[in-house]
Structure formats: structure tokens, C-alpha cells
Amino acid sequence: QWLSDRKKRALQKKDVDIRRRIELIQDFEMPTVSTKIKVSRDGQYIMAVGTYKPRIRCFDTYQLSQKFERCLDSEVVTFEILSDDYSKIVFLQCGRFVEFHSQHGHYYRTRIPKFGRDFSYHYPSCDLYFVGASSEVYRLNLEQGRFLNSLQTDASESNVCDINPVHFLFAMGTAEGKVECWDPRTRSRVGLLDCALSSVTADTEIDGLPSVSALKFDGALHMAVGTSTGQVLLYDLRSSNPLIVKDHHYGLPIKSIQFQRQLDLIISADSRIIKMWNKDTGKIFTSMEPEYDINDVCLYPNSGMLMTANEAPKMNIYYIPALGPAPKWCSFLDNLTEELEENPESTVYDDYKFVTRKDLENLGLAHLIGSSLLRAYMHGFFMDIRLYHKAKMMANPFAYEEYRREKIRQKIEETRAQRVQLKKLPKVNKELALKLIEEEGEEQQVTRKRKQKNMPSLLKDDRFKVMFENPDFQVDEQSEEFRLLNPLVSKISEKRKRKLRLLEELEAQEQEEEEEPEGKASDAESSESSDDEKGWVEEVRKQRKLLRQEEKVKRQERFKEDQQTLLKPQFFEIKEGEEFRSFKDSAKKQKLMKKTLEDRLKLEEKLGTLNVSDTTVGSKQATFKLKKSEQQKKQQEAERQHRQERKTLRRSANHLKSKRGRGRLFH
């Protein structure tokens, strides 16, 4: 937070973790401070109010961006979304104003007699109930468009109010620490709870009279009350005593209470901490302390997402997978949270150095603790990297000698690395392993020059481990494919075989590292490398000649075996539906199959079953006529006779029609 904007941008380019940070909704913030945040009933829109200047911003979760922004005349105390989307909104403002907005924008504005602090909407009667710096509860009917008779209470002032979503009981929290419950149908008070007296327990220390600062219904029978001294009381409406009392231990007013029904949790928040605890046992589930003070908390319905309005421009979004799944508009969070590490690496800044108290004592800078040159962080301090280098030079003047010795040691290790190192080769495919080792060394030299990343070695890859362990994967160098596709393999393999022999001798004799047995092999390589290009054609011819001789020997052996075998008579069974004609057909087919493709094409052209023509591009086009079986011929003959009969019937019908027409005309 104490880095400049320029340093932050530079850090964002360098640090991969900062670049990978997820921004769920674009520009999810306010100019200075956000005071209230709510979600529409359809879950598509998130609305927040803040300053400065007073404004409301609506964010569309389907587009992950801001939908609209409207500036207001005065700051908003609280607001309510009356419709399923953003088309009907009511704002309670500081100057006793009540402002109505429709889908297009500002719709109507009116005032209430006293300053308001909270309001609730009664859906069955379309009444708005306003509470504030007065003993009266003002009612504004939206259907008739006028104020109704107020509700007269015993309280001097009221802070919060809420309406039960099941039986529509109206409850209001007073400055005296009491909760009054009213029936909207009879406009009479039906209950009174003294929360101030119930919140005082043996463990709590209270300076003044607790007032009610938060109120929330859960279902038909439960109600949670938050006090200005930091206690949360859970009531059953059938009893005047609380079921459980939870203390935040900060002495700050409770600002928001939410219910999480899937895990039976209550989410209560003051300006400093958000606590989640079980409503039956009071056991803490988890707690969060944001960096800035909290003004409001909103739980996204049926999910584990939590949003807060803070005393800062940025509105925070928290996702807790244990509370529930991610919303459908950001379902990818479920996959990301599984891949995240529990212990991320700490960020290291280039222009700051982290030092502990012991490091400061070694550098002689312990007297700077508490000054602006050191910034306390965790178990140490951040200090400027330039100051650190200067102090280190003064504290250790022989640092250059240590640096020089380290460089000399590195040079000696590099020269040792160039010597021959005994490498243990696998039992299977030794030549292939040696080839891979040589190629790996060449690739490392290339990557050093080009400053590229080294590719993983095939020998160290577990997927190809069996190729160097199982004898079934041994390369057969005597096979025809290997010898034809690799005409120079013989010479290259000879070089590798020499190296293998040398390595085996070195392993057997256990010679010292200083000996260099590869000198002879390197001389051989240099003398033979010039002959590789000249002898390539001769090597190919030699391989082909050897293959022909081997093929000739195999043919002679097969001919001898055929002469030794005695021919026995064989009987064949004719398939159903076929007729036996003679052995000449099979003999003709065998003779035809022995002919070349060119001779067969010429024969088929004479018979008329094949037509070959040249195309405009220069290629050949062949058209085939398939031979018809006896069954197909019979079927075609039957179809031809059927068509002929239909033609004769059609002609006779036309002849009769023409005769009838002539008879009528004559008559």
C-alpha cells in the first residue's frame, strides 16, 4: 500500500501472481466510500450506493460489468429494491427525502417529517414503514400515493426495523435497547422485548445503555438482534428470553446480520470483523477481518459468496466454498479454488529488503527501529535496498574477497564439469540412451546461447521408463526397416559402440576422474567425419545388395520346403445360393490377379466395364461399371416388364377418354 502507482504497475508486469488475480466484476468500486450493497431477487443485479458524489451503481452479473450509474442530490442512508430486477428502487436520503426510481431513472421525490434511519416495505398492503429520530413510525402507501396514520410508539428514537417474510410481523429496534413488534393488520403493538437487559451477561463489560443497531428475521419464529455494544441475541418469538447471546468482544455496534440456512449459520458484522457462528451452539465457524472498516455485508443467495461495502473505494468479494457453491455467473471459481495452494509464496519487492531484528543488530542499524526508514512487517522490517547495501559494505569490508573466492570456486567447478563423467547407462537400449545423452548435451549448449528453457529429458520421463527396462522394447538393428531407413546408422553406431566399450572399461577398472579416455575416440571421430558424406552412396548400395542376397537365400529355402511337402487332396464346400461352374473361373481369377494393374485396366477397357479419360487438370479419371449378379438381372427384367404394362394401361385409358369426348360433342 505504500508503493507508488508507478512501482505498482511495474510490479504487475513482473509478478505472475499479481497478473493472475481474478477481477470477477469489472470496476466493482466507488469513488471514495461505499455504504450499502444489495442483490436483486432474481440474482442478476448487484446494487451499491456510496460517495463522493452521492451515487448508485448497478452491476450486471451476466455481463460482469457495470450496467448504469446514477448520481443523487444527497447521501443515501439505506435503500430497498421493490421489484425482482432494478426497475423499482426506493432511497432514504439524509435530508429527510424519499426518492423513487424506475427503470429509466428518477421517478418521484417526497419528504418525511423527521430524519429517517431505516425503512421496510410491507408487500400485502404496499406500505412503506419509516423509523428514525422520532417516536412515530411513518407509513406511506404506494398504491394510494399518500401518507397514512402513523404508529405511535413508546420509544424516543428508533434505529432499525424489519418485516417478517412469512407472517409480516413488523419489528423495530429502539435507542433504549428494546424491540417493539406490531401487527400491520390491526396497527397495534403485540409484543415488547428488552434486549438491553438480556445482552448483559457475567462476561460482558458495558459502559452505557445498549441500543438496538441491527435486526433480522429468519423464518416465522426466529429473530436476531444486534446491539451497539457488540452483542448478537437470537430470539424465539414465543419466548422473551434469548436462545443464545454472542459477543464480538470489540465493543463496536453490530452493523449487519445475515442467515445462512444450509449450515444453520449466523453471519454478524461490526465495523472491524465478520463472524460466522452456529445459531444452535454459538461455535465459531470462521471470521474475517478486512483491511478497512465495514459498512454493510451482503450474502449472495444460495451460494458461498459474500460482498462487503467498506470505508474504501474497492468493494470486497469473498468466496468461501464451505458455505456453498459459486454462483452460476462465476461457476469457474469452483475449479480454481481446488487448484489454489494453501500457502502461497510471499511477494518480494525489488526495491525493498526484508530484514529481521537480528539482521539489523549485525548491520548496526538497531537504532533505526521506530523511524520512517524501517516499516514493520510480520516478524521483521522492510528497508530500502540501497540503504541495506551501504550498511552491508560498511559492516563487512571484506565482502569483495568473499565474492572473489566464490567466483574462483565456480570457475573450477565449470572446468571439472567438462571432464568425462561416468554415466550409468540402462540395461536395455544402451545405444539409444547414449544418443539421447549426446543430443541433450548439444541442446543445452544451444539453449544457453539462445537463452531458452531446457526441455525435459526422455531418460528422466516416467512415461518412457519401460523402454529402457523391458527387453521387449529392444531396438532390432538387423531388421530390414532399420537398415533401409538408416543408411549411416552403422557408422554412427560404431562410434557409440566404441564409447560404450570405453565406459564399460572405465566402470570395470574404476579409474580416477583426472584421466581422459575419450581422446582416442575423439581422434577417430575427427578422422571419420570427413568420410561420412563420401561413403553415404556406397553404404546405401551395400545395404541393398545385402538385402537382395538375404531375400534370394530365403526364396531358395522356401522352394526346397515346397518340394519336400506332399500335396494332399482337399475338399471344399460350396456356399448356399451359389452355383458351381468349373475350376476354370478360379484359374482365370488367379491369372488375372497375377497380372499388373496396367494389363488389368486394358482388359477391362476392351470388355467395356472401365472408361479412362484425361481431365483438364492433367490427371486421369476412371469410371467403373460393376458386374450384375443373376438376382439383379432378374429384378431389372421384372421392373422392365412392369413399366411396359403400365405404359399399355395408360395408353388404353387415354384412348377411352378421347372416344367419350367425341361422343358428347357429336350429341
UniProtKB/TrEMBL annotation:
The Nucleolar protein 10-like second domain sits at: 348-396
Q: Which GO terms describe its cellular component?
A: 90S preribosome; small-subunit processome
Q: Which domain of life is it from?
A: Eukaryota
Q: Where in the cell is it found?
A: Nucleus, Nucleolus
Annotated keywords: Coiled coil, Nucleus, Repeat, WD repeat
Composition-biased stretches (Acidic residues): 507-517
Q: Where is the composition biased (Basic and acidic residues)?
A: 627-642
First-listed, main subcellular location of the protein, grouped into a coarse class: nucleus
**InterPro entries, per the entry:** Beta-prop_NOL10_N, NOL10/Enp2, NOL10_2nd, NUC153, WD40/YVTN_repeat-like_dom_sf, WD40_repeat_dom_sf
Q: In this protein, which residues make up the domain named NUC153?
A: 461-487
Give a yes or no for keyword Coiled coil in this entry: yes
PANTHER family reported for this sequence: NUCLEOLAR PROTEIN 10
Q: What is this protein called?
A: Nucleolar protein 10
Recorded source organism is: Pelecanus crispus
